[in-house]
Amino acid sequence: MRPNVQTTTNAIVINRTLRNTYQLLAATLLFSGLMAFLSMSLELPFFGIWITLGGYFGLLFLVTKLRNSASGILAVFALTGFMGLTLGPIISAYTSFFSNGTELVAMAMTGTAAIFLSLSFYALYSQKDFSFLSGFLTAGIIVAFLAGIAAYFFNIPTLSLTVSAAFILLMSGLILFETSNIIRGGETNYIMATVTLYISIYNLFLSLLQILGVFSGED
Q1: How many CB atoms lie within 10 A of CB 105?
Q2: Mean pLDDT in residue range 158-176
Q3: 4, 100, 172, 190: which has the highest count of C-beta atoms within 10 A?
Q4: Closest CA to 95 of 43, 147, 136
Q5: Greatest CA span in the chain, whole angstroms?
Q6: What is the DSSP string of 131-197?
Q7: What is the distance between the alpha carbons of residues 31 and 203, in angstroms, rounded to a whole number?
Q8: What b/e readout covers 44-72, taking b as 16+ CB neighbours within 10 angstroms?
Q9: pLDDT exceeds cutoff 50 at 219
Q10: Considering the chain, what is the average pLDDT of its residues?
Q11: 130 secondary structure, DSSP code
Q12: How high is the pLDDT of residue 1?
């Protein structure tokens, strides 16, 4: 009886984590979108790389610290709301600079949704273990992040494009890894799971948008 009870308990925890993660993720994506729209409506300027990184890592630290309390949910909304505000000026720049900027943004959003949904569906229904990606993703994200910083400060378009392509692959892998981690019981904190998936979606969108902008012929 004990193994069956343990299995049932684990299944309940996994299902609850998965349900809570997707519910919170949907809410934070909507809130982030509203903040991006507000940022665009107010015509806020670019936040700058240091404000963006400082706000992101500071709020991420807050979320991590509060992840086991109800206050953690408020911290998640603070983080995703802030990221939405930083996204507004970027979208405005694309819609203003490119004659087909609105279409580029729509294509990036559609591509992001398609990648996320297809990878999540695959991970959920294949039940495959993607934990082997952990080391590769950690190293790859660190390298890509540092390369992105270098591309920004030294103004190297080719490196920037390469980083965007790398982030598409890395964030796709992160979606597979985190979804697998949830359904296999490796991640039981839906707050942290939500943040991981949100950041994956955020970076996917930005990377797709940059690549589409480059190949639009107007960059």
Answers
A1: 21
A2: 95
A3: 190
A4: 43
A5: 66
A6: GGGHHHHHHHHHHHHHHHHHHHHHT-HHHHHHHHHHHHHHHHHHHHHHHHHHHTTS---HHHHHHHH
A7: 17
A8: eeebeeeebeebbeebeebbeebbeeeeb
A9: no
A10: 91
A11: -
A12: 42
Long-range contacts (CB closer than 8 Å, 24 or more residues apart) made by 139-148: 140/166, 140/169, 140/170, 140/173, 141/170, 141/174, 144/170
Q: How far is CA 103 from CA 16, 73, 152, 167, 208, in A?
A: 37, 33, 25, 22, 13
**Taking 90 as the threshold, does the pLDDT of residue 74 lie above it?**
yes
Chain centroid offset of residue 68 CA: 21
Structure-token pair, residue 107: 């294509």
Whether 28 and 77 have beta carbons less than 8 Å apart is answered as yes
Mean pLDDT of 215-219: 65
Q: What are the pLDDT digits (tens) for 82-103?
A: 999 999 999 999 999 888 889 9
Owner of token pair 């569906």: 121
pLDDT at 99: 85
213 token code pair: 């902008």
Q: Closest Cα partner for 87 from 178, 207, 216?
A: 207
Contact 40, 92 (CB under 8 A): yes
